[in-house]
Amino acid sequence: MVVRVLLGAALVVVLVLGLVWVLQRRLIYLPDAGPVPAAASVLPGGEDVRLRTADGLELGAWYVRP
């Protein structure tokens, strides 16, 4: 009885891992490539801001006052 339960559990694990392997491309997050809307159009009081990193990279961000 114990062997049958262990074999069943092992089969479930193998099936789940196989399903993850087959569907791995669908599990990857692919963000929308379209333009990002203005912060004020999405959040009341939102502002578009630009942040510069130490290595000179400029990042776009949203700021909403607390």
Q: Overview of this structure, please?
A:
The structure is a single chain. Strand 1 (46-52) and strand 2 form a beta hairpin. The protein has two domains: 1-30; 34-66, no CATH class. The termini are far apart. The mean pLDDT is 93. It is 38% helix and 21% strand. It has a two-stranded antiparallel sheet. It has helices spanning 2-22, 39-42, and strands at 46-52, 58-64. The protein contains two helices and two strands. It is of the alpha+beta class and 66 residues long.
Spans of at least 5 consecutive residues with low confidence: none
Largest sheet: 2 strands, antiparallel
**Helical segment tally?**
2
> What integer value in Å does the Rg equal?
23 Å
Specify the oligomeric state.
single chain
How many runs of DSSP E, i.e. beta strands? 2
Pattern of helices and strands: HHEE
- Class inferred from helices and paired strands: alpha+beta
Strand order of the largest sheet: 1-2
Distance between termini?
60 Å
The figure for the number of domains is 2
Approximate helicity band? 25-40%
Q: What would the principal axes of the Cα set say about the shape? A: elongated
**Mean pLDDT level:** 93
Which percent range describes the beta-strand content?
Answer: 15-25%
SSE order and pairing:
Layout: H1 2-22, H2 39-42, E1 46-52, E2 58-64
Antiparallel strand pairs: 1-2
Descriptors:
alpha+beta, 2 helices, 2 domains, 2 strands, 66 residues
Summarize the structure.
The protein is of the alpha+beta class and 66 residues long.
